[in-house]
Amino acid sequence: MSDLEKKSIDPATIKMIQKAAVDGCETIFDRAEAMKPCPIGAEGSCCKNCAMGPCRVPAPKKKDGPAKKRMGLCGATAETIAARNFARMVAAGTAAHSDHARGIAEAFLATAKGEVPEFKIKDEQKLLQVAMDLDVEIGDRSVQEIAIEVGKKALEEFGRQQGEVRFVKRAPAKRQEIWRKLGIVPRGIDREVVELMHRTHMGVDQDYKSLLLSAARCALADGWAGSMISTDLQDIIFGNPVPVLGEINLGVLKKDEINVVVHGHEPLLPEVLVGAVKDPEIKKAALATGAKGINLVGMCCSANEILMRHGIPVAGNFLQQELAIVTGAVDVMVVDVQCEMQSLAQVAKCYHTKLITTSPKAKIEGAMHIEFDEHHATAVAKKILMEAIDNYKNRRANVEIPDDKTDQVVGFSYETINYLLGGMFRASYRPLNDNIINGRIRGIAGVVGCNNARVTHDDPNLTLIKELIKNDVIVLVTGCAAMTCGKAGLLTPEAARKYAGEGLASVCEAVGIPPVLHMGSCVDNSRILLAATAVVKAGGLGDDISDLPAAGAALEWMSEKAVAIGHYFVASGVYTVFGTTWPTTGSEEVTKHLFEEFENITKGKWGFESDPLKAAKSMIDHIDKKRKALGIDKTRERVLFDMAKRREIDAA
Known about the structure:
Blueprint lengths: L2 H5 L3 H13 L4 H7 L4 H4 L3 E2 L7 E2 L21 H35 L11 H10 L9 H17 L13 H10 L6 H11 L8 H31 L5 E5 L9 E6 L4 H9 L3 H9 L5 E6 H11 L3 E3 L4 H6 L3 E6 L8 H6 L4 E4 L10 E2 L7 H15 L14 E5 L3 H9 L7 H8 L5 E5 L11 H12 L2 E5 L1 H9 L7 H5 L2 H10 L4 E3 L6 H14 L11 E5 L5 H12 L3 E4 L9 H15 L3 E3 L3 H19 L12 H9 L1
Parallel strand pairs: 4-5, 4-7, 5-6, 7-8, 8-9, 11-12, 11-14, 12-13, 14-15, 15-16
Antiparallel strand pairs: 1-2, 3-10
Helix pairs in contact: 5-7, 5-9, 5-10, 5-24, 6-7, 6-10, 7-10, 9-10, 10-23, 10-24, 11-16, 19-26
């Protein structure tokens, strides 16, 4: 591989890395080459939780018999330090997703009260379902009354001090029993984050097994509460996603139009921008500049949100955010929270792009700040668009947009999959179960997460997913991993015959779906939990998520949110494989506990494998082990019954 091919397998990305070099603009790819990660920090062996440190306790070298354990000044061992660091990542990741959910819940309640005219209750059926799950009485009450109480009940889940978050009852009964026996059912979202941060303070919880189990309770507050609340309420006010055609990659930018890139994770402003670009006043102002119009495109998870509901094109995933600006064609990039690089401000200075922050929680030095307020949403959206229109005239000569873009079909919520498999009147996951039982589909994999500049951009996730579908494993994707699949052409029904094994391809062609199903943004991993639960409830594949021939992976992970996601999948009974690096390798005991012993506790376990083909093999081996345990590992002989045999069955 050339040096550029080691940075990314995506042609558009490679072209823009080259252009950035010519333009003298530094990007994350340059910094990754120049700056190597701290080996002690990478393995979780550095503690800076008090002012006596930082204390470094790398694993001792075993030369002559057992080596003496190294400790920090307070006596904290490598096990305690690694477990604390891991738990703090879980707490931060849970906080990020759940704070997103809180903002959505507040906007939802304002919508229900009629205080924000830009938003409406679009999916009344899902409202009623969520209402029942939140113990809201329906009766003959109006939609508004129900929605207001749903909003209030959702907000209660954050500050709850005792009892259980309500959505845990959506999980299979056996899974709930495991959680209660372990004492890890979340009480309230905020309480679990605060308690875990307290436990990791100097001199508090110093038993690594206790820390990791507490981290599981916090992570479950993300997957089965915060993220699930966010996904459900967004579906109610923006509409439940259904399959829609869209385009992806930097080629969606347009040289003769005003390009506005919306980047981040909270979909409130992006939804309003979708409507605002159609406003006659805005369109007139755009045309007056000589441009042919405004081209709104997405980046990262904000892109997934408006792509799924409106077909808005996607410029790229996490490692492409700077490169969109490098094209020289982006007039405004709008950011809110999570995964925005601070370097965007410096890259924007190399070109004419205006970088605009919109969240009161997330400001960037050197960026313009226009704060979003859902009560004045349209006015804010128009102000941002006018900034882009005014900036169009400042474009420089060095505009270069790659031709690369790909069609994709997205929008597979777990309800949509239910409908596609069974139709309007017989909607069910049973056809999926039947095809797993008969062996056409070997199993299910969830592949999620970020990009990481320490590995070749898009390569680990793509290699893994291609290997899985080749071996008849249907794949559910979210976040930046989903965008990788879109760019590679895996998110179309035609991809089944081209890339999937014979069994999986036959099922996909019969139903008309891709072999890889795009389920949304990173908060939408809760959809995968509910899909897994639906498979359990459909019958024939055990009575818990841990019984399913299923596995998960995030081979290019980089954020604390990914660790929280992974830990709630493990705590839900799923074998989950991470790549790139692993944050507890500084402690052999902690790593063994997570990779082996945790399975005896939660029926799920962690794995680490940087080689995507080996990761695929480990997932397939796990799937096959589960198939064998279910007694469906052997191909069943087809028996044709004559009328006499049928009568015998009826008589029995």
